[in-house]
Specification:
Protein name: Aldehyde oxidase
Pfam families: Ald_Xan_dh_C, MoCoBD_1, MoCoBD_2
Organism: Methylobacterium tarhaniae
CATH architecture of the largest domain: 2-Layer Sandwich
Number of domains: 3
Region (Disordered): 149-169
Number of strands: 32
GO molecular function: iron ion binding; oxidoreductase activity
CATH superfamily of the largest domain: Aldehyde oxidase/xanthine dehydrogenase, molybdopterin binding domain
CATH class of the largest domain: Alpha Beta
Structural class: alpha+beta
Helix content: 10-25%
Radius of gyration: 27 Å
CATH topology of the largest domain: Aldehyde Oxidoreductase, domain 4
Shape: globular
């Protein structure tokens, strides 16, 4: 069957856009129930110690306060750590809210006040008095680096650093050019627009309908069933819209546990919404120290590469991400040693944040490569081309495809890189120093097992269904585009249902795998529908397609047509009448090819070019231009794809210049726990960003040939900005974010 691309590969506005801008889209905290009660979390005032007393009498005396849950009266739940492990949990003992008197991190929930209204619950929460036996918290990663360890149990889905190749230490000692530097990444919090919230509707007899802020409804369902000993048929999770996640919604957060516990205990519906302050009391991108050592010959060709990283984790889980692995595959080098360790501190467990590990590791590697360029007197782009890797040398595999050279070439041409003056502080615009920097980005191109259904009716209306989430990335739209092309229908005749455990199961929306995974499932389901329709069309008396083969027909404009003679056709309605059916439907499951994964490595790549202008006296940095050239296989929707890269670049600028969660190590608490003091880029910070998608054909990475775009936009962006800052000022800042004090110090 031929499937001409009428919609796939074009620029289309989001189909869910009108619902979002008119307020019709409902988020987790906007669903309601007739008997809805409201819960407000009381957070701990210390970061380490024990609760010695908790006085809830004043709160319980408030008319309208229903109950105050604490560790002393919480409902009975599962005993084993295993029951609290969600789909992406790292090794260790998952956090359990209200599990006991121990306080293990700052802001830990110590009580839930449930009342008839949110205002009453909030008032009641202010009346809960907690007495503590406080201990000195240990939150300073710098002081714990000597105690760093290789995690004994690896996190599922996260590859540990590959074994060393060659003799990196020996090759470094004999290399004509030697460079060794340390780089630091600060803690960052995700801060999506929608705070974490759960509305648990009690349906009676222990049955629940849950509206949860989550990037995968099946993860919430599995967690709730395991913790509260419920049957999957009794727990339905519905999350049609997610107001941003960036990874914070991959794991069920503690408001879900508290809302479900209260609903089951009270046998009524309960909603719990976290405040912006409380959004700083769980996952974050971990603070990380990295050392990169590069040995090269006079021509800039790498002879030795060593990359070591120490990242913070909680005392109860070994959070892991791939930080150093990228250094073993991005450039050709015969001698490579990579090392990744953790150090325990008294904080909550870090969590995946957009391109986890890659943002951190690539900042260090690409900063070091820029330093090597200056040490050798070679243009930074030319240096990368001289060390271009044709294979994944870390895994010893060929790439499914790699169009990074084209990204370098097209990005540099659009940016005007050839006009760059090599000497730092050599470019000016009035009183501002001008700097140009560049960096490479890389991210895994993954496909996961996924299912989807397609249902077609005689009037040519197609409904697609899949439990995956749309975080605002355009999933509703791209799945509709795939379905419309597969069956030759107008896009406005296709509807998509997402975010519901009653729909065919899909993986969490993360890792940039949704388009490849759920997109392939939709394509497979539509193909099965097409095969059934074709069978009905051939069975018609005197059918124009009686002797045709499925491989030789195409679907277009509501018809099934013979490719060689479009006049020989049968309409969808005619085919259904011939088959005596009111609808044609199919549910299909797809999964990645194990053989392909064994033979090949699959990655997206980018070349990021940045211009900064810096006030010479004040040290104020403006990122005035960015060109991001992306090699990501087939692009399904040019408009939503561009939006993904724009958002990633903006987050990269934030990481480079602004975002930092500041821990007071005496208190063990994040001090700038609000959007007034935790700075993220705003409109005034963002200027011209240009996105280029280079042509890249890949027939191995996934059935659709797509590689995913959610992560690659942010990878390398911070390094490009940091390198531009050095070019402008001649001062190398290796500690993110690059704030004014570090420039003028």
């Amino acid at each position: 069957m031929a499937t001409p691309s009428r919609y796939v590969g074009t620029a289309r506005s989001r189909l869910d856009g009108p619902a979002k801008v008119t307020g019709a889209a409902k988020y987790a905290a906007e669903f309601t129930a007739p008997d809805l009660a409201h819960g407000v979390v009381v957070s701990s005032a210390i970061a380490k110690g024990r609760i010695t007393a908790i006085d809830t009498k004043a709160a319980e005396a408030v008319p309208g306060v229903i109950k105050v849950l604490t560790h002393e009266n919480k409902p009975r739940t599962a005993w084993l750590d295993y029951n609290y492990r969600d789909q992406v949990a790292p090794p260790g003992s998952p956090f359990r809210a209200l599990n006991g008197p121990e306080i293990v991190y700052g802001g830990q929930p110590v009580a839930l006040v449930v009342a008839e209204s949110f205002e009453l619950a909030r008032h009641g929460a202010s009346l809960v008095k907690v007495t503590y036996d406080e201990e000195v918290p240990n939150t300073d990663l710098a002081k714990n680096r000597d105690a760093a360890y290789v995690p004994p149990k690896k996190r599922s889905g996260i590859k540990p650093p590959p074994d060393p190749r060659g003799d990196a230490a020996g090759a470094y000692d004999t290399a004509p050019i030697q460079l060794r530097q340390e780089y630091k990444q600060a803690i960052e919090h995700h801060n999506p627009m929608e705070p974490h919230a759960s509305t648990v509707v009690y349906e009676g007899e222990g049955k629940l309908t849950i509206h949860d802020k989550i990037q995968g409804v099946n993860n919430t369902q599995g967690y709730v069933c395991s913790v509260f000993n419920l049957k999957p048929d009794d727990v339905r999770v519905i999350t049609p819209y997610v107001g941003g996640g960036f990874g914070s919604g991959l794991r069920p957060q503690y408001q879900l546990y508290l809302a479900v516990a209260a609903a089951l205990d009270l046998k009524r519906s309960v909603r719990v919404v976290l405040t912006r302050d409380q959004m700083f009391t769980f996952g974050y991108r971990p603070e990380t120290y990295q050392t990169v050592a590069l040995g090269a010959d006079e021509a800039g060709r790498l002879q030795s590469l060593t990359h070591d990283a120490v990242a913070g984790t909680s005392t109860f889980e070994d959070y892991q991400e791939a930080v150093v692995n990228w250094s073993g595959l991005l450039y050709h080098c015969p001698n490579v040693t990579l090392d990744y360790k953790l150090a325990k501190i008294d904080t909550y467990t870090p969590s995946d944040m957009r391109a986890p590990g890659a943002v951190t590791g690539i900042f260090a590697l690409e900063s070091a490569m820029d330093e090597l360029a200056y040490a050798t007197g070679i243009d930074p782009l030319e240096l990368r081309l001289r060390n271009y890797a044709e294979r994944d040398e870390g895994e010893g595999k060929d790439f499914t495809s790699k169009a990074l050279r084209a990204a370098y070439e097209q990005g540099a041409a659009r940016f005007g890189w050839s006009r760059r003056k090599a000497e730092p502080r050599s470019m000016r615009d009035g009183h501002e120093l001008v700097g140009w920097g560049m960096a490479t980005g890389v991210w895994e191109a993954m496909m996961m097992q996924s299912s989807a259904s397609a249902t077609l009716t005689p009037d040519g209306t197609l409904e697609l269904a899949c439990s995956t989430a749309d975080l605002g990335t355009g999933t509703y739209t791209i799945l509709a585009q795939i379905g419309a092309d597969a069956l030759g229908l107008p896009l406005d005749r296709v509807t998509t249902r997402l975010g519901d455990t009653a729909l065919p199961e899909a993986p969490l929306a993360g890792g940039s795998w949704t388009a490849a995974s759920s997109g392939a499932a939709v394509q497979a389901a539509c193909r099965k529908v097409a095969e059934q329709l074709f069978g009905h069309a051939r069975s018609m008396a005197e059918s124009p397609l009686a002797n045709a083969d499925f491989a030789h027909v195409t679907f277009a404009d509501g018809d099934i047509r013979l490719q060689t003679d479009p006049s020989r056709k049968v309409s969808i309605a005619e085919a259904m009448r011939a088959g005596g059916v009111e609808r044609v439907e199919a549910t299909e499951k797809v999964k990645p090819s194990m053989l392909t994964n064994m033979r090949y490595s699959a990655y997206t790549h980018s070349a990021v070019f940045a211009e900064v202008k810096i006030d010479e006296e004040l040290g104020v940095v403006r990122v005035t231009r960015v060109v991001s050239a992306i090699a990501a296989g087939k692009i399904l929707n040019l408009k939503t794809a561009r939006s993904q890269i724009l958002g990633g670049v903006v987050m990269g600028i934030g990481a480079a210049l602004e975002e930092e969660s500041m821990l007071d190590h005496n208190l063990g608490r994040i001090m700038n726990h609000n959007l007034g003091e935790y700075h993220v880029p705003v409109n005034a910070d963002i200027h011209d960003i240009e996105v280029i998608f280079v042509d890249e054909h890949d027939d191995k990475v996934s059935p659709l040939g797509v590689k995913g775009l959610g992560e690659i936009g942010i990878v390398g962006a911070a390094a490009a900005v940091a390198n531009a800052v050095f070019h402008a000022t001649g001062k190398r800042v290796r500690d993110l974010p690059i704030t004014i004090d570090k420039i003028i110090a």
